[in-house]
Specification:
- 76% of the residues lie in helices and 0% in strands.
- With 111 residues, it is mostly helical.
- The model is unreliable at 1-11 (pLDDT under 50).
Length: 111
């Protein structure tokens, strides 16, 4: 279990998963906004692209690398369930591959 250094309370990994889900959802919204681009949506589109860039930029990549390394170390030492560890790693793949996944779905749907 993860603990914060200052308070000693458990840190919920579900909250981290919710953050990844939020980032994936914003990535989908930004991808859809780029595809349709209705008139007058410039500021909204720019805001969504900024959020997407922030959530999928260098900081998010560094956090994901640290999270995967921590999960891998905990799995290696037997302190973490393998199923949960695989779920975290699979979530990172979905987060960073969301644009490609949506593009494939749209192409298969004929859109």
């Amino acid at each position: 279990m993860f603990h914060t250094i200052s308070q000693g309370k458990p840190l919920s990994l579900r909250r981290a998963g919710a953050g990844f889900s939020l980032a994936a959802g914003l990535n989908l919204l930004a991808t859809q906004a780029c595809a349709q681009d209705p008139q007058g949506s410039g500021p909204i589109l720019n805001a969504l692209l900024w959020i997407q860039g922030s959530l999928l930029g260098n900081v998010a990549t560094a956090v994901a690398v640290i999270a995967v390394a921590m999960v891998g170390f905990m799995m290696l030492t037997g302190r973490l369930n393998w199923k949960f560890g695989a779920t975290v790693i699979f979530g990172c793949f979905i987060l960073f591959g969301a644009a490609t996944i949506v593009g494939g779905i749209r192409q298969a749907a004929g859109g």
